[in-house]
Amino acid sequence: MEERRNVILVCSVVGFLGLLSAATGFAAEAKRIKVDQVQSPSPEECIYPRSPALGLGLTAAATLMIAQIIINVATRCVCCRKGPHQSNSNWTAALVCFIVSWFTFVIAFLLLLTGAALNDEHGEENLYYTNYYCYVVKPGVFAGAAVLSLASVILGIIYYLTLNSANNSNNAWGGAPVPPQSHIAMAQPQFPPQDPLFVHEDTYMRRQFT
Question: What is the pLDDT of residue 174?
Answer without folding.
Answer: 47
